[in-house]
Write a structure and sequence with these properties.
With 95 residues, the chain is an all-alpha fold. The protein has helices at 2-17, 19-46, 53-89. 2% of the residues are buried. The protein is built from 3 helices and no strands. Helices cover 85% and strands 0% of the residues. It has one domain.
């Protein structure tokens, strides 16, 4: 659900930021995502492979990092629900 809301908001965000800054921010997000996935893949290989993300967090950072992981999942789901509610109640264009 969160990715579909992001895709729907992309044209509006590009209009608000401008084409150059919007595309620059898209590339910045791409490189940050690529780099973080490379770090996760390398950590998985170093810890034996085939671990879930939460198991990887426990192996690399212990219980505090696993709790942080749980809280980010809850926060992300909460924000997705709030965003979906706002979009459905306040559409961007009036018809």
């Amino acid at each position: 659900m969160t990715s579909s809301l992001g895709v729907l908001a992309l044209p509006y965000v590009l209009k608000m930021c401008g084409l150059i800054l919007g595309v620059l921010m898209l590339f910045l997000g791409y490189f940050a995502t690529y780099w973080s996935l490379q770090l996760i893949a390398e950590a998985d290989c170093r810890t034996g492979g085939n671990a879930t993300l939460k198991e990887l967090y426990i192996k690399c950072g212990g219980s505090p990092l696993a709790k942080f992981y749980d809280s980010t999942i809850v926060f992300t789901q909460f924000c997705a629900q709030v965003g979906q509610s706002l979009v459905s109640k306040f559409p961007l264009s009036q018809q």
